[in-house]
């Protein structure tokens, strides 16, 4: 896996120098490193801003206590629990639907061409809708029509709608990128399509699946407007997914834009969110890698 | 492929059926939301008529004016600007991570991008409002402007494009790269002539996802673009996007006004389809069954 | 050897999945097990200005009356009205007086909030006359030097349509909706504060409560008085500060039961410090309709 990431591992050192000899190559080298530096610099600036304003408010109590004084003191424990629950509901719905649709679009598109085209167009539309429209739709459909009210369940389901296009597109792209030889090999071995997909294609596409998951988790944790209208504003520790619960992103928004004097705590909460994100991403990557090792007959 | 499908065991047909159901659910979510938008827009379209959204003198729903065009322009300028800025930087980052950075550096770079992909819109908006806007204000007040919007949005969508592009570049078969290196091509030549073309479809997917995110972003845009309904004269002018408009006014709008806001949501959906179709046409090459490179 | 490590990898993966699954089921089951009938509950929806202070008061109420659950949601004053009409909420938090068809509802004012002009601390001006404010907001005066300040283009910060703060402001200065030439339009009070804090040439107007607390926390803005009356809590209490709005709790029918108990609780002197900490003046009289 390591050598795949850096081709020159199997090339001699003279190749590396040769890549700088031609001016165009040197310019490309500069451009690529420059871009990486600019990107890293910009984001480090933002994260440093968050750390600078928020680190002083972090403590163990912050992670384990309930909010007091509208969030200006105390901690964010119930909010963390609500956030994780919302994420779980979202993923529990989005992953099966997303994987299924992606596999259909990538592998069965000739059998269901018109449906495939329609689904793909709809996903594009879905990906571009404002988050507030999802919030309004979620409020009207999940909270009112389905009668779930302000609840973690409503929030998770609404988020699943938002995350689906990202997940489906990433997984589909990964499946499409797999060379046809794999499918030909599978056919030659007499494998059924189900086995082919489950044991060859999906594990081989697992980096793409991991990317889809991570982008989906990122989007879910970052979403504010949609959750404000569906999972709500309540800071109490939720008893179940039918309770209303404030998500971390909503709490950050409230502290920064609604509660005067709440900036410091908003930044501290943002730091915790970043920490949660890093943990979730690591978990997602781990699980996908484990699954690939377990299921994969052909390690590409 | 067709020969295999003809002889497919029952399990395969069951799988196909299940998959069609999941895809139908996914598709029906869009139908549901678009229907919701249509349902909400009908009162305005019937009472006000679609033409007035283009010809009324200004956007002032309380007084019966529903001119949407400046906000449409605002959305497009900010989105297109953000994508034009973010896409090259993101692809370059992805190339960096896969071909120019060594082991640990490459992994750290990817973890970094994954973390950035999860920064909430509020944080981007806050940073934009408290750091970027005052900086721009020193050049040309008020600071809240197209420029601020483009910069913040570009930062927001960059990780998405970079990560999807990175995955696409990683899927380029190693044999291609090895062969090219054996033929004596330099690193950049390999990237330019082998890796990027092979990964193009995936990279374009990333750009599409990023464009979608930019079109739909609400919170950060409200905080840094100034929200003044006007066609911007320069990048330093404030502007209001369609999403910001919905966010600012929806909670306080009554029937006709509310319905007009739904119309702007509908316009946004159409805009999305249009932009995506354009990118597809620019990028796409026809396949034998009439679908383009993305199988559409 | 490789086969063994593969199997142990499988097992760890399965174990993780099982643990996560059990936790998930436990949380969901725990929810199903706690009987909802044990709780007396109240739902309030509405103004985001009122939400933070109502959350604090609700916490006090829950401490004093165990077994009661008070859920506070946000979404704006108009959302609150819609929700009490549809039955989704028991009480609406409305940060303005009731208008039009809303007058059939029952409003219980619990506080008064003032609206004041804010400037950046770097701005040398300390007072503005009403005529000057009108001139600035209509675009007649475009540069601070015309008013004796620095040579800088004035950045006019205005609120988006529908906000109570904006209505109160326009009302007091007798400004027409379309007459205002704004450079920046904001949604929340805090956004106006942050804009003015970041731009030395900016002027805006916000709820006194928001501005005063931000000033306490060191945000570089200052409050301007109007007509010689300072924008302070004291002047709100004495009802001499001219630009003010009521903060109401609104119900569909005359409040009864838990809703009534809560509204009465909000008006007790014990709650006064909580309300005044937000620089709102507590209001105790009962009014029905208007």
Describe this structure in words.
The complex is a heterotrimer of chains A (300), B (296) and C (290). Chain A is mainly alpha-helical. Helices cover 75% and strands 1% of the residues of chain A. Chain A contains 14 helices and two strands; from the N terminus they run H-H-H-H-E-E-H-H-H-H-H-H-H-H-H-H. In chain A, a hairpin with a 4-residue loop joins strand 1 (67-68) and strand 2. The longest helix of chain A is centred in the C-terminal third of the chain and has 33 residues, at 263-295. Chain B has helices at residues 2-6, 10-47, 52-55, 69-100, 103-116, 121-139, 146-170, 174-182, 187-216, 219-224, 242-249, 255-283, and strands spanning 59-60, 65-66. Chain B has a two-stranded antiparallel sheet with strand order 1-2. The model of chain B is unreliable at 1-5 and 285-296 (pLDDT under 50). In chain C, strands 1, 2, 3, 4, 5, 6, 7, 8, 9 and 10 form a ten-stranded mixed beta sheet that branches. In chain C, helix 5 links the parallel strand 5 (155-159) and strand 6 (184-186). Chains in contact: A-B, A-C, B-C. Chains A and B meet through helix 1, helix 2, helix 3, helix 5 and helix 6 of A and helix 1, helix 2, helix 4, helix 5 and helix 6 of B.
